[in-house]
Amino acid sequence: KQRPINPRIEPLMRKELSKLIESGIIFPVKHSSWVANLVPVRKKNGEIRLCVDFRDLNKASLKDHYPLPNMDQILRTVSGSDRLSLLDGYSGYNQILVRGEDRYKTTFTTKWGTYAYKRMPFGLSNAGATFQRAMDMAFRSLLNKCILVYLDDVTVFSKNSDEHLMHLRQTFQICRQFGISLNPKKSIFSVHEGKLLGHIVSKQGLAIDPFRIEAISQLSLPHHKKALQSFLGKINFVRRFVPDFAALVKPLTAMLRKEKTFSWTSEGREGFEAIKTAISQAPTLANPNFDKDFTMYALAGAETISAILTQVNDENIEQPIAFFGQSLHDYETRYTFLEKQVLSIVRGLKNFKYMLSNNRIHVLVSHPNVKAFLLNKELNEKRAGWITKVMEYDVDIRVAKIVRGKGLCEHLITDMLKNQAAEPKDSEQHAETTYQQSNVMLQPGNQQPELPQEIQESRWMTDLVNYLQHGTYPE
Predict the structure, then answer these.
(1) How far apart are the first and last CA of the chain?
(2) To which H or E segment does residue 251 belong?
(3) If 107 and its partner were Cys, which of 76, 116, 161, 256 is the partner (CB 3.0–4.6 Å)?
């Protein structure tokens, strides 16, 4: 049964349909046991994209589990390169032929007749896996050496311009060999930085797309729970760039509890503005150097844990590589400060695992008994499991009077803004951010109170310890 169509878009649909027929992407059919409905979608430029509702066909299809590349690894591999070319496939999926006997399964109905696809359309459950496999096979000789492919996004990365020209020549040779068409209007050649998978990649590292920052900064207060959930979903994409993210969004996530009536408190409003400000000031994350040691600051608060991964560059400047933050479950908030600090190590290492597996990590903690805890052989099963997970890494535990999480994060942000202000502005490129080596030790006169070990490890003293060491009041 055909769906009703707005008469105003009928001419646009007919035009797009004619274009698909002329280009050999679809063809008319008379009989088919599979028929789907056409769904017109308006583009930003006012034109129409013809999509097909393949839900019934997808339910009957065997699933192809060929994996898509890990987006984070692609971004990390590309960032740090001196030269980049960001190539876009022209109607990528349509470059794959559909097997003759299967074409009738893609039949769809229109006001002007029924048609089927000769070339692979969007909307099929296995289209992404099929296309990724084809691209990986085509570029396998250069894959992960100077080329990374995510569906129809082909990224060529090199150390210098001469090497880049050679890599581009090899890329175009493969495109000609396999008949892969590129879109010149959406491709960018030989640049120092560019937009990839919603991020800005450059030799300096990885940054949030400024357009995304601008869009988030202009969002107004959500008026109901679903709108707040949508906001949190949008900003979750950039959480790796925001120090102490979990603590910043805590007032907002608390508003989503079922037992609470949705209403904005002063704490919620402050939290909403604070997270938007933190995103607008998010630092550029440096690219990890796997020939050097890493440093991870393990931080624990009353209701959240966090970790900051850094590395000292060739200029002896400590730079942030990634941030991790997580809200604690209700039962975890009752852990002692020592247990919370160990938990922040365990989950921080797990979050950064793909970068830390074969490198030495200097873990900085503030509790003096963390090392003894990790050597204790008489712990219960859960805590013994924590130790086992830490033992998977080459970890060097160092005790330091670390500033509590919020203070350390503010210190990193302040350093970033100072360096940005000191650098000359470039209208054509994003300002390069450097980081002075972070001094995370407490200054004289601002010392945290020294508490006896038995108090720090007592469950009954958790609220007192959190207040004295973090300034956090009990609920």
Answers:
(1) 58
(2) helix 245-254
(3) 116
Three-state secondary structure string covering 267-295: HHHHHHHHHHHHHHCCCCECCCCCCCCEE
Nearest to 128 by CA among 62, 187, 66: 66
Q: How many CB atoms lie within 10 A of CB 162?
A: 10
Cβ–Cβ under 8 Å, residues 17 and 50: yes
Look at residues 249, 280, 311 and tell me which one is the last residue of a structural domain.
280
- Residue 112's CB is within 10 A of a number of other CB atoms, namely 12
Please list the pLDDT of the chain residue by residue as tens digits (475 residues): 677 777 788 888 888 899 999 999 999 998 888 999 988 888 777 778 888 999 999 999 999 999 999 888 888 888 888 999 999 988 888 899 999 999 999 999 988 889 999 999 988 999 999 999 999 999 999 998 999 999 989 999 999 999 999 999 999 999 999 999 999 988 999 999 889 888 899 888 899 999 988 989 888 999 888 999 999 988 888 888 988 888 888 889 888 887 778 888 888 899 999 999 999 988 889 988 888 999 999 989 888 999 999 998 888 888 899 999 898 998 999 999 999 999 999 999 999 988 888 889 999 998 889 988 888 877 788 888 888 899 999 999 988 865 454 455 555 545 544 444 444 444 333 333 333 333 333 333 344 455 555 555 555 566 666 666 655 555 5
Tokens of 463: 């609220």
Long-range pairs of 94-98 with CB within 8 A, sequence gap ≥ 24: 94/23, 94/25, 94/119, 94/120, 94/121, 95/119, 95/179, 95/180, 95/181, 96/120, 96/130, 96/131, 96/134
Phi-psi region of 471 (alpha: psi -120 to 50; beta: other; left: phi over 0): left
Integer Rg of the chain from CA: 27
Residue 267 falls inside a structural domain: yes
Other CB atoms within 10 Å distance of the CB of residue 61: 13
Query: Is the domain of 276 the same as that of 307?
Result: no
User: Which H or E run contains 254?
Assistant: helix 245-254
Residue-range definition of the domain harbouring residue 322: 294-470
Domain boundary residue among 205, 234, 267? 205
Residue entry with tokens 């966090």: 306
Residue 137 lies in a domain: yes
Are 190 and 226 found together in one domain?
no
Distance CA 326, CA 360 (A): 24
